[in-house]
Amino acid sequence: MTRPLQITVLGATGSIGLSTLDVIARHPERYGVYALTGFSRIAELRSLCVRHRPDYAVVGDETQAAILQQQLQSDGVPTRVLTGEGGLCEVAAHPEVDVVMAAIVGAAGLKPTLAAVKAGKRVLLANKEALVMSGALFMQALRDSSAVLLPIDSEHNAIFQCLPSGYAQGLGAVGVRRILLTASGGPFRDIAPQLLPEVTPEQACAHPNWSMGRKISVDSASMMNKGLELIEACWLFDARPQQVEVVIHPQSVIHSMVDYVDGSVLAQLGNPDMRTPIAHALAWPERIDSGVSALDLLQIGRLDFQAPDDLRFPCLRLARQAAESGGTAPAMLNAANEVAVDAFLNRRIRFTEIASIIDDVLNREAVVATACLEDVLAADRQARNGANTWLSRHGR
Ligand code: NAD
Ligand code: MG
Prior knowledge:
Blueprint lengths: L4 E6 L4 H11 L5 E7 L4 H11 L3 E4 L2 H14 L4 E4 H10 L5 E4 L7 H9 L3 E4 L2 H17 L3 E4 L2 H9 L13 E8 L17 H5 L8 H9 L1 H14 L6 E5 L5 E7 L4 E5 L5 H9 L13 H4 L13 H12 L3 H17 L7 H12 L8 H21 L3
Helix pairs in contact: 2-3, 4-5, 5-6, 6-10, 6-14, 9-14, 10-13, 13-15, 14-15, 14-16, 15-16
Nicotinamide-adenine-dinucleotide binds next to helix 1, helix 6 and helix 9.
């Protein structure tokens, strides 16, 4: 009997983190929890430590760490508490770790995810922003290490499942014509465009099909999520932006498709529950139970498709432009979006101003090549400054 695989869950207190722990707990003979990390909701992290008894927990600062360490001691849990980015990178790269779930939201996940790649782990990538920011460097680090990267984003996990194993030779070599990236269209798919400036964070976070963290929920509502996913798909599958087509599919049952030159289209279907791609990536190339119920197509009845509306969703167009520009453009797009989404969630700007901010930043800042990680981090800082300047210029 082999020992259970040791797993670090970066972002354990989030939506993906909790779904990951749900799947892991169904298979104690296969998986053990090495480390859990959280940035807020520390009470939740404490109960996760009591339940899963990891070797390490990582929190944001020393004060949180001291409190949590004392609480865990009184709970009789031997978990050691570490702090900050150093702690995150340590538990992502530790020799005892086999698998790292990268489920921190946003640019904060970049360094720990890269640390896991460089240390040769099996990396389960939910944190799409990390790859969008640093695409070329990230993929180079992957080629230079023995790491295995498996996509958790449901669309990319679906595409991965629909591609033959030799796809790394190039999509053309395996007969792929296009990737069809499906999108639910989010909560504002059918709203009258003139009402969009008035929508609230609560409305934006009420996704019709998926229950997710607040940042990705707003991204889904603006369709920036699909834009980030387009860039993610280009890196993961070595596709050109023009080879990735976005199709609105309101039921979120088909998670994406691959169109081959002979006219075959392969799709992966399932209930919209992230435990399916998580279980797939954890066990690949095997299959394990995820706790997700069987798909009932008769209950669903119909599958609809429509083209995305560029006027309603300018973020998708901005992301496609950034994908085509390359270099630091995707990192700037991502950073400006993070600042703008945060401002929207804090009611400082209107929903439609998210796109205005990103557009403004991308128009002002020059795109350069990314030779090293510092180039990416500098572009990230520059775009955050640009977005904050927009906010002060507009008195927000
Ligand atoms: P979430 O907001 O629910 O959780 C985010 C996690 O990251 C939390 O554990 C939080 O404590 C941690 N975190 C936040 N800021 C941090 C910081 N500065 N430093 C360290 N840790 C920090 O988000 P989520 O919905 O679970 O999404 C996580 C990632 O997965 C995102 O990149 C998202 O795009 C991606 N993703 C999510 C879903 C989904 O269904 N939720 C689907 C596909 C992809
Ligand atoms: Mg997705």
